[in-house]
Amino acid sequence: MSEKTFVLDGKTIPYAEGQTIMQAAMAAGVYIPRLCYHPEFKPHGSCKLCTVKSNGRQAASCTQLAQSAAVVESDTQELNDERRALLQMLFVEGNHFCPSCEQSGNCQLQATAYALNVMSTHYDHFFPDRPLDASHPEYLLDFNRCILCSLCIRASRDVDGKNVFGLAGRGIKSHLIVNAQSGALADTDFAGDDKAAQVCPVGVILKKRRGFAVPIGQRTYDLKPISAMPDAKES
Amino acid sequence: MDTPVKRKLKVATTSLAGCFGCHMSLLDIDERLFDLLELVEFDRSPLTDIKHIGTCDIGFIEGGLCNNENVHVLREFRSNCKVLIAVGACAINGGLPAQRNHLALPIILQEVYHTSHGLAAGSDIPNDPELPLPLNKVHPLHEVVKIDYFIPGCPPSGDAIWKVLADLLAGHEPQLGHGLIHYD
Lengths: 235, 184
What we know:
The complex is a heterodimer. Chain A has helices spanning about 20-25, 75-95, 110-115, 150-160, 220-225; strands at about 5-10, 10-15, 50-55, 55-60, 70-75, 140, 165-170, 175-180, 205. By secondary structure, chain A is an alpha+beta fold. Chain A folds into two domains: about 10-75, Ubiquitin-like (UB roll); about 100-225, Alpha-Beta Plaits. Chain A has a five-stranded mixed β-sheet with strand order 2-1-5-3-4, with no helix packed on it. In chain A, strands 6-9 form a two-stranded antiparallel sheet. The mean pLDDT of chain A is about 95. By secondary structure, chain B is α/β, with parallel strands linked by helices. Chain B has a domain at about 10-100 and about 135-170: 3-Layer(aba) Sandwich (Rossmann fold), CATH 3.40.50. Chain B has a five-stranded parallel β-sheet, with helices on both faces. The termini of chain B are far apart. In chain B, about 40% of the residues are buried. The mean pLDDT of chain B is about 95. The interface between A and B is medium-sized, with 28 and 30 residues.
C-alpha cells in the first residue's frame, strides 16, 4: 500500500492514519504556529493560531485529522495576518511587559510574535488588574501573563491527577483559577515536580528564587527562532 | 548639467514617558552616525536642544504618554512629520511607567506625597499650574495618533534602530529579522 500523504504549502507530507495535520507537520519538520497545543497532551483547539486552510476550509490543525491528498495552506499572507491579529489581542488583553518578565526569551507567546514579525500591539490595551499569587513557598503565579491556553489545567488533571488549575468565567471574563477553597496555590497539593509546573508557555507559573539564571539575550528563542524548532516539545 | 544636490532628510526625536535609553541606543550606532549625518539633519531633538519641531520627514519617539504635555508633543510631532516611528517598549505598550495602570491615580499621589516614609514636613501633592497634569493611565502612542513604524525593545539595539533608519532612507519597508526583533 502506498504511503498516505497530503500537501502542505506545496510540500508533500506523509502521515499515519489518525494523525492530525499538526502532528504530521511536526514529524516532517514543518512549523505551524501554535500556543495551546503541546504534543504530550490532548489538543484543545482554542488559541486558533494553528488555523490552516485544508481544501480551502479553515480548521485548527491541532484538531483536524490529516486527509489523503488534501491541499493545506498555512504560511500564507492571509493566515499570518490573522495570526498576528490573534497575537496582538493576546498581548493587549493581559499585561505582557517583556523587559521585566523572567520568562522573556523562553516565552512562546513572545517567540511566536517574533517569528510572525509582530512589531506593535496595534489594539488599545486593557491594562487589567490581576493580582499575583505568591502564597506557595516555591512557586509564584503571575496571572497578568495568562493566555488561557489551559496547558497547566490539562497537565495537572491528566498527568499529575491533581486538578490544581481551572478556567472560570466566560468570554472576556474567562480567567485562570486555583482549585482551593481560598483560591491560593499554597492551599493545594501543587509541587515543583508536577507536569503542571513545567508546561506554561508564558510567564505565569514561575519558580521562586531562580531569577535571571540565564541572562536575557542567551535564552532559548534568543539563540534560535521558534520556527526553526518545529518538533520541539518546549516546556 | 548640474547633478541636483540631494536634500538631507529632516529628523526630529523626543523622549516622552521614557528614560532616554532608546536615545542612548541611537547613539550606539557608533561610527554609523557619520553615515547618518550625510543623509539627515536633526531638527527638534535632545541632541540639538531645538525646543519646537519644524516640518520634518521622520519623527523618532521614545516613551509612552503619562501626562498631558506628552500628548501635546506627540500631536505636534504627528502634524509635522511625514513618518512617525514609535521606538522602544514604552512607546509601544506603555512599558515600565504603565506598571502604575492598575492603581488609581489619586491613591498613587496620596501615597507618594502624603503617607510614604521620609517625607519632609509640609509635603503636598504638587499643584503648580506649570506642571503637566498626569493622565489617569499611561498609554502607548498608537492609542492617540497614527504610528507608521515600530521598533520594539527595551531598548532596541543600535543595530535594530540603524536597520530601520537605513531601510527607510533607502526607500524600502523596514524589516527586522531574528536577533534584531526583541521585546526585552
